[in-house]
């Protein structure tokens, strides 16, 4: 009897895994209303990612932007839109802070000026502001009674369920808040809670990283065109190659150097190409790009501190 139950459990888990891999597993729909202060690419990626998994309907979503025309695409999806940030805070249980870091303080002041502050109590604010610490966000929101803050560093591939996100709690965030944010982010890819001092480095790798990878794919495609391939074919091959290589890294548990060596035969074509890349300092240029992105996040944080003082 125990053996039968055990086999049934294994079969159930295998079926669930297959459903999840194909986006067919059932999810528990969230009841919270979700707000976005800011309507940019990252806000859209987050919202579409969690909607895609069935966690929310667009009727639960409130979005604000200073430019009403920017909200047309949200309105077409069924979201509630407004140019009034205070309305989003009033109507939402969870508010994503998705504006540019340099306009964050002005956005908060507009909310305070336009809102009846009794409607801003006990909100969870999720900050995706690059380079702005939870301490600075909490300081900016000090007039919002009961405000809790969680900082999230997402990336745009979460739009297709392949995101790579990290998060850390502010001083007043609860376990329930962390569980909710984890639910959001797991629905859009992989996620991990980290100490805040690591966030800027992660941002440079995973949040800025897709842009670096797109440049590499474009360059790989350009090389194919240079050698006689049609552009569409070269781009498709380049993108699939990058995706396949990334899965090899994630699934084979081998060091990248080992995987590289397995492709490079003695005196062959690949080692000739690797030699050309090393002469071009490709490795150093990528490391410099990550460093530059991380240092820029530090600069933004320092600016945020000055703006709050």
From TrEMBL:
* EC number annotated for this UniProt entry: 1.5.1.2
**Which catalytic reaction applies to this protein?**
L-proline + NAD(+) = (S)-1-pyrroline-5-carboxylate + NADH + 2 H(+); L-proline + NADP(+) = (S)-1-pyrroline-5-carboxylate + NADPH + 2 H(+)
NADP as a keyword of this entry, yes or no, is yes
Instruction: Cite the InterPro entries for this sequence.
Output: 6-PGluconate_DH-like_C_sf, NAD(P)-bd_dom_sf, P5C_Rdtase_cat_N, P5CR_dimer, Pyrroline-COOH_reductase
Into which family does the record put it? Belongs to the pyrroline-5-carboxylate reductase family.
PANTHER family referenced in this protein's UniProt entry, alphabetically: PYRROLINE-5-CARBOXYLATE REDUCTASE
Q: What is this protein called?
A: Pyrroline-5-carboxylate reductase
């Amino acid at each position: 009897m125990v053996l039968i139950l055990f086999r049934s459990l294994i079969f159930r888990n295998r079926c669930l895994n297959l459903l999840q891999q194909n986006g067919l597993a059932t999810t528990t729909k969230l009841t919270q209303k979700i707000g976005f202060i800011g309507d940019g690419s990252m806000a859209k990626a987050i919202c579409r990612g969690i909607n895609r998994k069935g966690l929310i309907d667009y009727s639960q979503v409130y979005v604000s932007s200073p430019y009403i025309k920017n909200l047309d695409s949200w309105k077409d999806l069924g979201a509630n839109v407004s140019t009034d940030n205070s309305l989003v805070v009033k109507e939402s249980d969870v508010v994503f802070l998705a504006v540019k870091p340099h306009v964050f303080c002005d956005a908060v002041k507009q909310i305070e000026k336009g809102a009846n502050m009794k409607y801003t109590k006990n909100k969870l604010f999720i900050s995706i502001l690059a380079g702005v610490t939870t301490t600075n966000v909490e300081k900016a929101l000090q007039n919002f009674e009961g405000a809790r803050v969680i900082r999230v560093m997402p990336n745009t591939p979460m739009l297709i369920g392949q995101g790579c996100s990290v998060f850390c709690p502010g001083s007043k965030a609860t376990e329930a808040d962390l569980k909710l944010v984890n639910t959001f982010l797991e629905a859009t890819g992989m996620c991990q809670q980290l100490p805040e001092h690591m966030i800027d480095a992660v941002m440079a790798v995973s949040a800025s990283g897709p842009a670096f990878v797109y440049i590499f794919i474009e360059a790989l495609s350009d090389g194919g065109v240079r050698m006689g391939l049609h552009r569409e074919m070269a781009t498709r091959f380049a993108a699939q190659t990058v995706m396949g290589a990334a899965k090899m890294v994630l699934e084979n548990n081998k060091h990248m150097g080992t995987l590289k060596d397995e492709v490079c035969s003695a005196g062959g074509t690949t080692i000739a190409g690797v030699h050309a890349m090393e002469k071009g300092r490709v490795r150093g240029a990528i490391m410099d790009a990550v460093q530059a992105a991380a240092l820029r996040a530090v600069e933004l944080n320092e600016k945020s501190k000055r703006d709050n003082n």
